[in-house]
Write a structure and sequence with these properties.
This protein has a single domain (about 10-250), classed as Rossmann fold, CATH 3.40.50. It has eight helices and seven strands, in the order βαβαβαβαβαβαααβ. It has helices at about 15-30, 40-55, 70-85, 105-135, 155-175, 195, 200-210, 220-230, and strands spanning about 10, 30-35, 60-65, 90, 140-145, 180-185, 240-245. It has a seven-stranded parallel sheet, sandwiched between helices. α1 (about 15-30) runs parallel beside α2 (about 40-55) and α3 packs parallel to α4. The termini are far apart.
Length: about 260
């Protein structure tokens, strides 16, 4: 059974999608959470829902921050620490995606943006938080992607960032053991706002559904439940693991996806 009662968790990118679902689930399991995002109105909504779900009526620490800015990353940790004075769980979930084709004028600028948010911000925040996590014998969960395991030329920079994040996970698991467990969750397609930035989300989902072995695109709560398990003592024997939760996306074969066995 997953028990996060009175654990302190910092969850980045938690104004919507996987991060918001994780904050709500953690709150319902008794955790004290700090939520971080760029949209104040969305953060306020998530915060109210977290408080309502908390069996202890804990109010989250709410931090508006832009992880393109190192100062905002530092402030995120400082504000969390100033309130809670401890940290048991760090969920590095904030991420961005772009589809600038290799060689386009803005491709390198977009690459820098993706690597800043998806990789550098994780490195900096982990460095800031490691002392508190060591004291707590805590856990880090990095939200990566199957994009780090399977190349896609249209999202090449995003794939690179997630492959880098997976290697960072393994490196930190080795460095911080036995005090802190560090694992990665690698979702496949998930119904979140990040897909809307890529164009017609309905068309994207229709295309993805055709090849999914389980014929289901994940909802944010599906990934949040995996994060909660890995962050809890229920997974105390796990570190350095790359945990895929993708509905079978990586094993999908478009040529046989519609085959029926009677």
């Amino acid at each position: 059974m997953i028990n996060l009662d009175n654990k302190v968790a910092l969850i980045t990118g938690s104004s919507d999608g996987i991060g918001a679902a994780t904050a709500l689930l953690f709150s319902s399991l008794g955790a004290k959470v700090a939520i971080v995002g760029r949209d104040q109105s969305k953060l306020d909504k998530v915060a109210a829902e977290c408080e309502a779900k908390s069996p202890h009526n804990y109010k989250p620490v709410v931090i508006k921050a832009d992880f393109m800015k190192d100062d905002d990353i530092r402030r995120t940790f400082e504000e969390t620490n100033s309130v809670y004075k401890k940290l048991d769980i760090l969920v590095n979930n904030a991420g961005v995606i772009c589809q600038k084709a290799f060689g386009e004028p803005q491709a390198l600028a977009d690459f820098d943006r993706v690597m800043q948010v998806n990789v550098r911000a994780v490195i900096l925040l982990t460095d800031l938080a490691k002392s508190q996590l060591i004291k707590a014998k805590g856990a880090i969960v990095n939200v990566s992607s199957v994009a780090g395991l399977k190349s896609n030329s249209s999202t090449w920079s995003y794939c690179m960032s997630k492959a880098s994040l997976d290697m960072f996970t393994k490196s930190m698991a080795s460095l911080l053991a036995p005090h802190v467990r560090v694992n990665s969750v690698n979702p496949g397609p998930v119904r979140t706002d990040i897909i809307k930035s890529m164009g017609d989300s309905n068309a994207i989902w229709d295309s993805v559904n055709q090849i999914m072995p389980l014929k289901k695109v994940a909802d944010p709560i599906d990934i949040a439940q995996t994060i909660a398990f890995i962050a809890s003592d229920a997974s105390r024997n796990m570190t350095g693991s790359i945990v895929v939760s993708d509905g079978g996306f990586l094993i999908a074969n478009p040529d046989t996806s519609n085959t029926k066995f009677e």
